Amino acid sequence: MKTGVRQSGGLRFFVDFCECPVSGRKLFYICRMIIPLRTPKLLKRLMPSCVWDIPTEKNEIYLTFDDGPIPCETEFVLDELDRVGAKATFFWVGDNVRKHPQVARKVVERGHSVGNHTFHHVVGWGMSVEKYLEEVRLCDEIIRDVTGLETRLFRPPHGRISRGQLKVLKTMKTVVMWDVLTVDYDARLSRKLCLSRSSRLTRPGSLVVFHDSVKAKKNLRGVLPEFLDYFALQDFGFQLLDM
Ligand SMILES: [Zn+2]
């Protein structure tokens, strides 16, 4: 499949292209643009054992960074957080901790929280409970080996976790989802829209997801500094989750 992407003026839709396998003709179809969004209340009610936001009256935001640690990207995030005196929570992929232990240690040394995001960033749906738990165990193990830390925090990659997996994991972990998804990983999304919608959707107690990954580089670098400044100017604090 050959894919080229065009964004429309309204930014809510994009055109995707593929080739017809029979005629070889170029076909296009219109897809809805994935834009930053807040988790619907209904979904939060359907999975009440997960943490979706932190109830508070205070001007506090809970930033989370998924899929690291990655050289350069994680270090960029750490410097930006330090710039405004923010703390955050990093959900790590175990294999990245194995590859980049020195970056992982920097996150801990600079006073942030860390959580488990499975060893290979696996999608829970369609995977046996045993296999999924092994992924979680391996990630815990490497975090312990590299940093000496034990964490109760767990975030399922893509938020895709089966009922059976959740039933077991909630007895061992605090399963952390999110309130605001910035969709920073989608390079088709303009920096402007990513920033404006993410800022508009965030409120006191929001758990906001960014990614310290190579895939999210464009929007992470373009959006995070302004996002931090926007809320810091309004006297918001950025808090971490207790491990
Ligand atoms: Zn992830």
From TrEMBL:
InterPro entries: Glyco_hydro/deAcase_b/a-brl, NODB_dom, Polysacc_deacetylase_ArnD. Gene3D superfamilies: Glycoside hydrolase/deacetylase. Keywords: Hydrolase, Metal-binding. PROSITE patterns: NODB. GO terms for biological process: carbohydrate metabolic process. Pfam families: Polysacc_deac_1. GO terms for cellular component: membrane. The keyword Transferase does not apply. The keyword Chaperone does not apply. GO terms for molecular function: hydrolase activity, acting on carbon-nitrogen (but not peptide) bonds; metal ion binding. Residues 59-241 form the NodB homology domain. This is Polysaccharide deacetylase.
